[in-house]
Amino acid sequence: MAQDRFQYHDYYLVDDLLTEEHKLVRGSVREWVKREVSPIVEDYCQRAEFPKQWIKGLADIGAFGPYIPAEYGGGGMDQIGYGLIMMELERGDSGLRSTASVQSSLVMYPIYTYGSEEQRRKYLPKLASGEFMGCFGLTEPDHGSNPSGMLTNIKDKGDHYLLNGSKMWISNAPFADIAVVWAKDEEGVIRGIIVERGMEGFSTPETHGKWSLRASATGELVFDNVKVPKENLLPNVKGLKGPLGCLNSARYGISWGAIGAALDCYDSALRYSKERVQFGRPIGGFQLQQKKLAEMITEITKAQLMCWRLGTLKNENRATPAQISMAKRNSVNMALEVAREARQIHGGMGITGEYPIMRHMMNLESVVTYEGTHDIHLLITGYDITGLNAFE
Ligand code: TGC
Ligand code: FAD
Fold this sequence. Notes:
By secondary structure, this protein is an alpha+beta fold. It has 3 domains: 14-129, Acyl-CoA dehydrogenase/oxidase, N-terminal domain (Butyryl-Coa Dehydrogenase, subunit A, domain 1, Orthogonal Bundle); 134-232, Butyryl-CoA Dehydrogenase, subunit A, domain 2, CATH 2.40.110.10; 241-386, Butyryl-CoA Dehydrogenase, subunit A, domain 3. The protein is built from 10 helices and 9 strands. It has helices at 20-47, 54-60, 79-92, 94-114, 117-129, 241-275, 287-315, 321-345, 357-367, 374-386, and strands at residues 134-137, 153-156, 160-171, 178-184, 190-196, 202-203, 218-229, 277-278, 281-282. 3-thiaglutaryl-CoA is lined by residues 98, 101-102, 136, 138-139, 145, 147-148, 171, 239-241, 244-245, 247-248, 321, 370-372, 376, 380, 391.
């Protein structure tokens, strides 16, 4: 990307609803993204490589476990603060936000919420500092939207568990030091277990050939008779509600994150529409382009308000999983629509790496699928409002 000229847009003065701390945190993340991410992200995406130097930077700005209590190395922040961090990171790149949201919501969250005190003390400070990176293994080759059918399993062997199976599409897998893995025990109950790199029989082959999230590393988790110590089992949760509880937190973060990608596309399109002259005047003066821009900022503003409200509900422990599904689905779909319209406003330039649009658009094609697809979240809303379960 040639130059990061991003300016924030707050049409309904949502900033008035934020605290000074929120604005401070958001400002420092934005500044870091402009300095350390924007100048290199295009190049890393073109090469399909994860910039490992981002790990230390993410830890330094407090993006790993922002809402985990400080005594475990986290930021002790509220949910709005977490959302704003995700928004600023995804404004830079969805893959960058992925790295941080997996570490925070899918690795630190389950260890904090379902783990023993020993597990918390052992892993959380290292995850917060970036000394350890983690990944989350739920999806399998034949069980994506329907994780309850998973085949990965653990067998009790007295002093350890024997883990077998495989997971697919796992963000951060190729470089993760630990994996929070969901597997069925001998009674068919889903349990969470922490697998460490270096355990015999555990490998993490990288997934190549992605046209999306190219600056994020994705891989498989393969378990071939892996002996996992008994103390690595997460003791405080049983059943699918374990992994789905983590997804509530990650989906919430994504609902903010996607707004960041949308804002970047809108901001670039707005500027381009004032600078690009055709037929003797800026293209922003044409009604068709104004319609696109006006609809973009309207949808962004609605999403900002929805996420702020969801964050306040989450702070009060009142946000329901269905409300989170609605926000994730709405924000990501909105961002995809904004990216597609912004691409058109940029004309041919919109397909180049001179502008962030095409990269955001391709990234969002993953974001609309992972953490529950667009369809699945619609059906969750459908179930919630009718009481009739489409999954049965
Ligand atoms: P169902 O029978 O409805 O529920 C089973 C149990 O779970 C409880 N539950 C939840 N608990 C907490 N939070 C939620 N959101 C929950 N939803 C359901 C439920 O109450 C029940 O509890 P209990 O005590 O009665 O046992 O389950 P189902 O098998 O019918 O499935 C429902 C469905 C389809 C909605 C669910 O499985 C689903 O959400 N599928 C989508 C899968 C998904 O989102 N996978 C994401 C993988 S991780 C990922 O993509 C990371 S990308 C990260 C990045 O790079 O940023
Ligand atoms: P499927 O479940 O096979 O769905 C295919 C299509 O069928 C979709 O359009 C879906 O909406 C539709 N469909 C399915 N069931 C229904 C239904 N009942 N009614 C109507 N339509 C339906 N997973 C992890 O565990 N950890 C990770 O870190 C992780 N990172 C990811 C990173 C990337 C880049 C990607 C692409 C995926 C990642 N995932 C991860 C996996 C992701 O969560 C799954 O891809 C997602 O849940 C969908 O599963 P699937 O791909 O198997 O699609």
